[in-house]
Write a structure and sequence with these properties.
- Strand 5 (46-51) and strand 6 (58-60) form a beta hairpin.
- The radius of gyration is 13 Å and the shape is globular.
- It is 0% helix and 51% strand.
- It has 112 residues and is mainly beta.
- The protein contains no helices and eleven strands.
- Strands 2, 4, 5, 6, 9, 10 and 11 form a seven-stranded mixed sheet that branches.
C-alpha cells in the first residue's frame, strides 16, 4: 500500500524555523519527483518546492526561495522541507505529493 506521511508541523513565531518530513511507504521516493504544497484557509493549494528525480533539480515558489530548502534522504525514504525565517503568510497546511499520491498534511502556524 502506497502511503505518504508528513510530520513536523507546529506553531512558531515569525523568524523561527521548522523542518517538515515526508516519509513514504510502499514505494521508493528516490525514483520520483517530490513536491511540497500548501493550502491556506480560503486559498487554493500552491506548490512550494520540488525536488526532481535528480537531487540537484530543485524548484521553489519565489516567495520562499532563500528561506526554504528541500532535500531527500533516500536511505530513510524521506524528503524534508527546511523552513527558515518563517513569515505569517507561511501559515497553511503543508502536503507532500508524488506520482499522484498525497499525504494527509501537517499544519504550520506562524503567529506573533
Amino acid at each position: 500500500q502506497v502511503q505518504l506521511t508528513e510530520s513536523g508541523g507546529g506553531s512558531v513565531q515569525p523568524g523561527q524555523s521548522l523542518t517538515l518530513s515526508c516519509t513514504a511507504s510502499g514505494f521508493s521516493l528516490a525514483r520520483y519527483a517530490i513536491g511540497w504544497y500548501r493550502q491556506a484557509p480560503g486559498k487554493e493549494r500552491e506548490g512550494v518546492a520540488c525536488i526532481g528525480q535528480r537531487d540537484r533539480d530543485l524548484d521553489y515558489l519565489p516567495s520562499v526561495e532563500g528561506r526554504f530548502t528541500v532535500a531527500r534522504d533516500s536511505a530513510k525514504n524521506t524528503v524534508y522541507l527546511q523552513m527558515d525565517n518563517l513569515k505569517l503568510e507561511d501559515t497553511a497546511v503543508y502536503y507532500c505529493g508524488a506520482d499522484g499520491f498525497w499525504g494527509q498534511g501537517t499544519q504550520v502556524t506562524v503567529a506573533s
